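Input.
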Amino acid sequence: MEPVPASAARTTLTQIMTSVDVNLLGTVHGGVVMRMVDSVAGAAAGRHSRGPAVTVSMDEMVFLHPVRVGDLIHAHAQVNWAGRTSMEVGVRVTSERWNELDPPVHVASAYLVFVAVDDDGRPRSVPAVVAENDEERRRLAEAEIRRQHRLARRAEIDLLRAGER
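Output.
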C-alpha cells in the first residue's frame, strides 16, 4: 500500500454554536465540541484509509477556553501516524465570533485513535503517513510517543488484573 502524505486527508468542519448547544453555565457544552472532534477525526481517518474507520479511543481532550453562543468553531483534523490498521488523528479546535474579524482562538485539542474496518467490521490495512515538513515530522514523533504510552499503560493494567503486579 502506497504511503499517503499527512496533508492528503486533512479535514475541517465548521459550525456556528447556538442556544441549543449550551450547558447550564451558558457556554457551549463540552460534549458538543467532543462530538464535532470525533466527526472531523473520523472523516480524516476515513479519507486517509480510503474507507470506513471507527473510533477506538480518545487519548486526550484538553479544553483551553470556553466557547459561547454565536461562535463559529472550526475543527481541523490530520492523521499524525498510521500503523498496520490503526491511525492517530490530531484535532485542533478554534473559535471566532460570527460577526467579528478577530483572529480565531485555540479552544481545544484532542488525539484520537481509529481503526480502519472492512465491510464485516474487521480491521483492514491502512497506508503509512508521509511527513512532508518539520511540523508533520514533530506530530509523527509525538504520536509515536503517545502510542508507546498507550501500549505500556495497557500492559501494566493487564498485569495488575492478572494479579502479577
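The first strand starts at residue 4 and ends at 5.
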